[in-house]
Amino acid sequence: MDAFENVTAVKKANVYFGGKVTSRTILFPSGEKKTLGIMLAGDYEFSTGNAEIMEVLSGSMDVLLPGETEWKTFAAGTSYTVKADSSFKLRVPEIADYCCSYLPR
């Protein structure tokens, strides 16, 4: 899906790591929530509440998922899932564009 229709976009940006990661929240009539964002090159660690599906739209991310010991690379056009109530690490070698979908509990 290249575009979302009939949604509400929250104007205020989500800003992390001194502005190196930013996103905007998109709310759907069904209650579904997504964020669309950009990550600059860098190393990051995020925590989750809900489970998340991270879709890489451009660039790439090296990801260390919860409970795993090996990093995996996800390039544009791929996605990965992160368990609820966990944390994961990212190494972003270049600007990455992403869409994060929050799964219901």
From TrEMBL:
EC number: 2.4.2.1, 2.4.2.2
InterPro entries, alphabetized: Ppnp, RmlC-like_jellyroll, RmlC_Cupin_sf
Reactions catalysed according to its record: a purine D-ribonucleoside + phosphate = a purine nucleobase + alpha-D-ribose 1-phosphate; uridine + phosphate = alpha-D-ribose 1-phosphate + uracil; xanthosine + phosphate = alpha-D-ribose 1-phosphate + xanthine; thymidine + phosphate = 2-deoxy-alpha-D-ribose 1-phosphate + thymine
Signal peptide coordinates: none
Gene3D superfamilies, per database record: Jelly Rolls (2.60.120.10)
UniProt keyword terms in alphabetical order: Glycosyltransferase, Transferase
Homology family: Belongs to the nucleoside phosphorylase PpnP family.
Function per UniProt: Catalyzes the phosphorolysis of diverse nucleosides, yielding D-ribose 1-phosphate and the respective free bases. Can use uridine, adenosine, guanosine, cytidine, thymidine, inosine and xanthosine as substrates. Also catalyzes the reverse reactions.
Protein's recorded name: Pyrimidine/purine nucleoside phosphorylase
The gene coding this protein: ppnP
